Every structure is written in C-alpha cells, then in structure tokens.
Amino acid sequence: MKKGTTIYNGQVVETIDVTPTWSGLLPMLLELYGQAYCKRKNQFTVRQDTVDTIKELGAEFKNMAQAADKWNEHCKAEQARHEQDAYNAAFLAQLDEISNQY
After folding, report:
1. Are 17 and 4 spatial neighbours (Cβ–Cβ below 8 Å)?
2. Distance between CA atoms of 17 and 71, rounded to whole angstroms?
3. CA distance 57 to 47
4. Engineering a disulfide at 17: which of 2, 39, 74, 97 sits with its beta carbon 3.0 to 4.6 angstroms away?
C-alpha cells in the first residue's frame, strides 16, 4: 500500500493505493494455470518437460509483469504531475484574481 495525496473536487485529500501489481498477482496466476492444466489432462503428476515449460512461461510472465508494473508507476507519476500542475495553475489564478482586487 502506498499513501499519498491527490486533488479531488479542488480539495487535497489523502489516498491509499491498494491497486494490485502484476508482479504480486503472478504467482497466484501461475498456480491457477498449473492446476487447470493438470485437471484438463486428468493428471495428478506433471511430466518434467511440462514443469520446464511452465517455469519458462513463468519467467517470461515475470518479465512482462515487471514491465507492466513499471509502466503503471510511470502513468501514475505522470497523472500526479498533471494534477499538481492543474492545482498550481488554479492556485496562481486565484492569487491573480485576489491581487487584481487590490
């Protein structure tokens, strides 16, 4: 979980991000895949070549999950930067409005 702040309806609010990561979901997804594979094949034991293939698949999925997590973090950082820019622009506009009154 990551704590942070964001702008919502013009107010700063604290947030807690509980979005799962692909890297965090990967072990469960691979386990489910392995169980489904065994059930489809009606096997209670898995051949070594199948184990090796699943390991290779897992390694590739791990790389993909890490890349997806990095991209998601990048997108969140960009969104936060844009929100901060919008907040700063609104704040400066309010300051200009107040200064024009005097």
Report:
1. yes
2. 16
3. 15
4. 2
Q: How many other C-beta atoms can be found within 10 angstroms of the C-beta atom of residue 2?
A: 10
Q: Rounded to whole angstroms, how far apart are CA atoms 19 and 1?
A: 8
Three-state secondary structure readout of 23-82:
HHHHHHHHHHHHHHHHHHCCCCCCCHHHHHHHHHHHHHHHHHHHHHHHHHHHHHHHHHHH
pLDDT (tens digit, 9 = 90+) per residue, 45-101? 767 887 788 788 888 999 999 999 999 999 989 988 998 888 888 888 888 888 888
Report the DSSP pairing between strands 11-17 and 2-8: antiparallel
Q: How many C-beta atoms lie closer than 10 Å to residue 22's C-beta?
A: 18
| Residues 1 and 15: beta-carbon distance below 8 Å | no
Phi first, then psi: give them for residue 45, nearest 5 degrees.
-125, 150
- Name the residue with tokens 């702040």: 5
